[in-house]
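Late entry, evening session. Most of the bench is empty. Finally got around to the prediction I had been postponing all week. Sequence below, unchanged from the version circulated by S.P.
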Amino acid sequence: SNNRKVSHVATARRMIQRAQDDLRGTVWALRVLPLQGRSFAEAIRLMADRLAEGRHVTIVVKVDSELPRLPEFVAGNLLLLAQEAMQNAIKHANSSRIETHVFLTPDCQRIALLVRDDGVGFTLQAQSPPDASHFGLAGMRERAERLGGQLQIETEQDQGTTVCAEVPLQHFDEGFEDGDYENTNPSSSD
């Protein structure tokens, strides 16, 4: 039973290590893309520009002007999700054009992140689990769920891929004063 204990400890250590790496990745991404003083829209555009740099790909970013100020945790994770989806499209899908659209859902309760590419696509059914993780799909889904949201992927061979994450806004808004952000005037400089 001692051996079993050791393997449990090893597993726990691995999980902690993974969590730490993930957190470090998040923190690193937030530091590389400092949100302080930068809107989410500016940050995601900057990221798209960096990803497209020196590559034969056009990344078009559209961000809803109605977007409220996002809590940093939400913004940071959405940025990472967008980065993962865009990197997939560049690396695996061989895309020449990627469209990234961030918008408020009609009920204003959720924020949606849509990344659509014109790449080769793939057959979801044919993905064996190890292969699916190779696309980082599991990681992206986990990240969306961590924000209380969900992730959908639509793809077909030669039809390109669409990744859509929807995350509730209310979920993390302890940081907001009550209703404070609903009447923030976008033209006021903060």
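Two things to note before I forget:
The first helix runs from residue 2 to 32.
The first strand starts at residue 58 and ends at 63.
Will write this up properly tomorrow.
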